[in-house]
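--- STAGE predict ---
source: upstream dedup step, 1 unique chain passed
mode: sequence only
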Amino acid sequence: MILLVWSFDTGAYLIGIALGKRKFLAHISPSKSYWGLFGGVVACTAVAVAGFWALGQPLVLGLGLGPLIGLVAQAGDLAESMLKRAAGAKDSGGLIRGTAAYSIAWTRSSSRRRSPRSMSRRWFAESGPKPAGEEGTVR
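--- STAGE serialize ---
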């Protein structure tokens, strides 16, 4: 399920940046576009079909579940944007450890050729509570 939502977000972002001119509900979330919505649904559907194929299940299940999960993911993004606007918050990526904050850290450090394992170890060590006497150390 999480993989499908991530694929929706990734497809929406990449296609929206490349082709998105007409905005989609700009009064709620100004960066969303119709092309982004389309790209997200297509990416989510492709991942759902690949997953069902890998599990030996009928592909028609992926063709039904992919768009459904994609549209629910979009609705969730819009609901989150409405809540952020109501609260006056700019970003909520750091609220759940390991989601947007981790991917931003990974993107910024990927040019340094670190492995995902060392990055996650470092990120969790830096973001979690520190025992007394180990405030600056990273294992």
